[in-house]
Amino acid sequence: MPRKDSRNTKMKIVNAAWELFYENGYENTTIEDIVERSETSKGSFYHHFSGKDALLSTLSYLFDDKYEALEGGIDLDGDAFQTLLDLNKELFFMIENRVSLDLLARMYSTQLVTTGEKHLLDNNRTYFKLLRKIISHGQQNGSLRSDVSTNEILKAYALFERALLYDWCICNGNYSLCNYSQSLLPMFLNGFRTK
C-alpha cells in the first residue's frame, strides 16, 4: 500500500475512534465500532494499532490533522501574533467540542509515565513544523521579536498551550477552554510581540 494511502487509512481510523470515544465513551467503543465508522477493515486496524489502548496516544495526530486542514488558509506575511491566536482558538474549540475530557486527561497521564515515545513533544509533528514556520515568518516581517530565538518562542508557546489543557483537565472542564485561552494567550504572547 502506498505511504499516502496508509496514512489516510490510519487517520480515518484515528478520527473515527476519537469521534466514537467522544460520543459513546472509551469503554463503550469497540474495535468493531471503529472499523465500521472508519470504513476500513480489522486487518487495517491491526496493521496500524495493537489494540484500542494504542489509540490513546494518537490524540496528537488528531490535533495535527486539524493543523493540516488550517494550514492552507494561513497568511505567513500577516501578523504572526493574530495567526497564533486564531490557530489556538480553532484547535481549542475542536478539543472542547470533540475530545472527551477523560480521554484528554488519560492521554496526558500516559505521556507522563511512558518510557517510550512522547508524541506531544515530537518535533516532527505538523504542530511544531507549522508553529515554527509562523513564528519564523513573524520574526522576519517584524510582528514578533527577533532577539529571542524561534525555538525559544515555540517552546514557550507549546508549554503555555499544554499548561492550559492540563489546567482544564484538572478543573474537570468547568469553564470554556476556548474562551479562557483567548483571554490569557494575548497577555502571554505580548511578551514576544514587537513594541
Feature tags:
mainly alpha; 2 domains; Tetracycline Repressor, domain 2; Arc Repressor Mutant, subunit A; 195 residues; single chain
Write up this protein.
- The protein has 195 residues and is an all-alpha fold.
- It has 2 domains: 1-49, Arc Repressor Mutant, subunit A (Orthogonal Bundle); 59-192, Orthogonal Bundle (Tetracycline Repressor, domain 2), CATH 1.10.357.10.
- The protein is built from 9 helices and no strands.
- It is globular and about 55 Å long.
- It starts with a helix and ends in a 6-residue tail after the last helix.
Blueprint of the fold:
Blueprint (H helix, E strand, L loop, with lengths): L2 H22 L6 H8 L3 H7 L10 H13 L8 H19 L2 H13 L12 H15 L9 H21 L6 H13 L6
Helix pairs in contact: 1-2, 1-4, 4-5, 5-7, 5-9, 6-8, 7-8, 8-9
Annotated CATH topology of the largest domain: Tetracycline Repressor, domain 2
Query: What's the name of the CATH homologous superfamily of the largest domain?
Result: Tetracycline Repressor, domain 2
Q: How do the SSEs run, as a string of H and E? A: HHHHHHHHH
Distance between the termini: 52 Å
Mean pLDDT across residues: 87
What is the CATH class of the largest domain? Answer: Mainly Alpha
